[in-house]
Amino acid sequence: MAIDAQSANLSIAVVGAGAMGCGITQVASQAGVKVLLFDAEEGAAQRGRAAVCDVLATMAAKGKLTGREADAASERIKIATDFTQLARAQIVIEAISENLAAKRDLFTRLETVVSADTLLTSNTSTLSISAIAAGCKRPERVAGFHFFNPVPSIKLCEVIEGLLTRPQVCDILCKLAQRFGHAAVRVKDSPGFLVNYAGRALITEALQLLQENIAPHYEIDRILREQAGLLTGPFELMDLTGMDIAQPMTEAIYAQCFHEPRLRPSEIAARQLAGGLLGRKTHRGFYTYESNRAIEAPLIPPPDARPAQVWVSEERPELADKLRSLVSSLGAKIDEGAYPDDDSLCLVTPLGHDATTCCIEEDLDAGRVVAIDMLFPTNRRRTLMATPITRQSFRDQAHGLFASDGATVSFIRDSAGMVTQRVAAMLINIACDLAQRRVATPEDIETAVTAGLGYARGPFALGQALGPRNVLTILDTMHSITGDARYRPSLWLKRRALLEAPLWMEEA
After folding, report:
1. Domain end residue (candidates: 188, 210, 229)
2. What is the tens place of the pLDDT at every residue in 144-176?
3. Per-residue DSSP letters for 212-258?
4. Which domain, by its residues, includes 367?
5. In this structure, what DSSP letter does residue 415 have?
6. Is residue 436 part of a domain?
């Protein structure tokens, strides 16, 4: 297999002149690769080439390329007017619709045209590479070459190895993706590959929170943006992606994984899809949009109330110390007793617990208990949680106290794992499961999640920062309280947490 991904004479074919095909054509031509663009629809390839050339000209006008570079890139893009012209390509990248039968038919036809050494690749985001290759005479040269939309902006490519793919094929494709300016991650053929599988953690857990009526969608978004550091909240993200894309993908991955509980879809998302509330594209989703801007729910001023004194649970000493420092900085009197006085606001710092379980285990008056998440930063937003019977006066005292320095407070209903703890734990757990199943290396999982999903930290770095033991405690506790198998810890996580080994450590 003598294809040199760095050769100045490398020639590829892109089949499909839609958004993905055009994006791949653009980055390839800018990287000095000759591109044959083909589409079965009459005139589509010509329109696609014209669109890419327009983009290159605009980049030149803005100074992002020189005029000579834009012209040279445009000159490298040729139209294949006949299917047989694809014989000249050393690598074919298929970017047609997500239909297994159509892709198999295309690859079968390609094998009658291209040489024995030509690599056949698919940009599929959901279909099995092994299933696509099953219809080929030479399945060993078939691989996944999955880019993300918009291709020029999201600098990541998943290189997917089917059951029969030769490792050398993926070596070549990784070098080609890097030539395009993209980080290349190697993935075993698996439902959702890396990014789409890992991304289910955020989406499905946020929907589970909404389904349990823990908080409104906008409050969940605010908490995860300001405590977990997400650039986009999960409901904002679903509206941006479109429920017509997000929900079918979730259902497909769930079905392909034989109903793995961690990936369970939500009836809420299914209802949004059935009702046509697709997001930005229909101006209604979880949010309502005017002039393409979401109408935000107003912030409610905090109550003007303060506690007489505050008692802090010692159940989690490291979190209790942080909480006492915060309470003292807000000017509240600390109740130093081993058990709270009758007029004290009782604060607990759960890891995976709900406020109710904290009350039962610590024998506290549930009418005065409020939980606060101290595992995550509290400088911008503080998440508080009451039991079902916490009295309003004590809720108001807690809210007033923790908003007194200008920080924003979210008051949620009782929930095992609160919001940020349970979402973060699921992100980490699903990444650990991918590593346990050897779908990819921890390093490639980390790269895929940060580059493909835009998270500030990858799941292994996040898990290490929170403490693997803490993450394991959150999952074990949530599993125990809810009885839901979605929260069972990955064995990869469990073993490393118990052995105090780094989460990204691979076995010899």
Report:
1. 188
2. 999 999 999 999 999 999 999 999 999 999 999
3. TTSS-HHHHHHHHHHTS--SS-HHHHHHHH-HHHHHHHHHHHHHHTT
4. 310-412
5. -
6. no
